Records
---
Amino acid sequence: MTSVMSVAPEAPARPWPFWRRFVWAFGVVYVFLAMMVGTQPLLPVTAWPWVQGAVDRVSRLVFGQPVVTPPGPTGSGDTQFDWAWLFCLLCLSVLAGLVWASWQRTAPTARQTGVLSEFLRMALAVWLTSYGLLKFGFGQFGLLPGGTLDITYADSSPMGLLWRFMGASAGYQWLAGVAEVLPALLLLHRRTVTLGALMAAVTMTNVFALNLFYDVPVKLFSGHLLLIATLLLAMDARRLRALLTGEAVPAVVWAPQVWWRRLLPWVLTCLILVLVGVNMRAGLQELRVDRARTQVTQEPLKTRGFHLINEVPFHH
């Protein structure tokens, strides 16, 4: 992964107007909080009682509604608590952005930009890899159970319909896994960060649209992953524009890296590829078992799209 010191020596900092400094500072703080302690946090602070109590008080004060705690795990990342907690993080980011913009009166330094890029790449690669590996082993959507083919569209929720659509095709689930793991691998290497971010943005646009229009309760989190991919592209916007316009841009000058920083991306790449192979092997075994069960039971013939029928008439 790119070292935070893998940039050329810094030029003198340029002054920035307050609004630009605030937008930068607010964005950095908000993305960091959203990934570290947000709806699917790397640090599970939302389980702390004092955090839940504080969010409930904010919800009562601002929205006039108490936060209703579900009786058990729901698997949802769009609960009332999640929305109220996100509002708290948004307010905290505004305050931190104002303080930061008042303190630093210049444009962000190369070190600050490098640290931000490192964090965005790490967060996006981790979650893309996690969701992608699940798909190779059919751990997210599963394989379509035969009995569900007797359910009508009217009996399906929008999310249920999407899950059955994905579960009906093992190959399509693997393709979706490739669409998530491949950009994660590209994000590990500094020469392919922009390509990885571009592929991740395409993938996450589709995922966010499916979550939004099929009412999958991961809208907030998938929207934030799409935001991260967009921010990575925005950080290289000048070069992307030059790709279309032919504009000349200076080459990126990288400082030498220590040996383990050069080796780490390749170690992680090999590890992820091994995990893909392990999950694919488990998925193939599950697929063989499912196909064999279909041949010896009275389940609908899932691979041919019609039901078994009784060849002897009932009135015979």
Note: Residues 211 and 219 are 6 Å apart (CA to CA).
---
Amino acid sequence: MEVTAALAGGRWTDHPDAVDPMLAAVARAVNDASSDAGRNALLPIAPWLVIHPRAGAQATAAAVVALAGRTTLGAATGRHADRLARELAAVSAPPGQRQRSGWQRHRRHRRAVRVMRRAVALLGRQGDGDGLLRALLVEAVNAVRLLDALPPVPLSALRPVDVATLPIRVQIHTPDGSESMHYHVAVVLDRWPVPLVQAWTARTAELRGSGGDVTQPAAAG
């Protein structure tokens, strides 16, 4: 998420504004459940996480949580899988009359995030957990892209990336007391691995074609 925040040009945070909230939640969960080597393998997906589907946050949340549940239940067995199936059924049920307020929707969203995180953690404990988690994140991105009638992420953009360093440009913003100091970051594009640069270039072209708002990070001066 921090790499994605730098690509999109924004605050240094694992909750970047440029990523749909539920997609960001599943990306953080996958990252947390992966090994060190598995986390490095997630980097090629970062450029494709920059997306806010026109279908809206509720549609995205439903698609991502259902995907995480189906994927995990297809790989896991035992009492933990049984519990997950019950929880997934509960959060997938249509909201009742009493769940239409903003507070109730927020509570339902938080519950869905907890179920999704439990599914991801369970998936990560299966054989080849890193591979299963990476595949889940790619499928989640594609599920969200489908909501915008976009094609799946090209496989060529997901090939492994050899990363030593990922230089970023940092500016410190100190507001006038209305909020705390924060870091604004952008990638030093001409010093990033070529596959990541190519993937980000392809994604920014998509965003411009769809009328999306995107900031192209500057090269090193």
Note: Residues 19 and 51 are 5 Å apart (CA to CA).
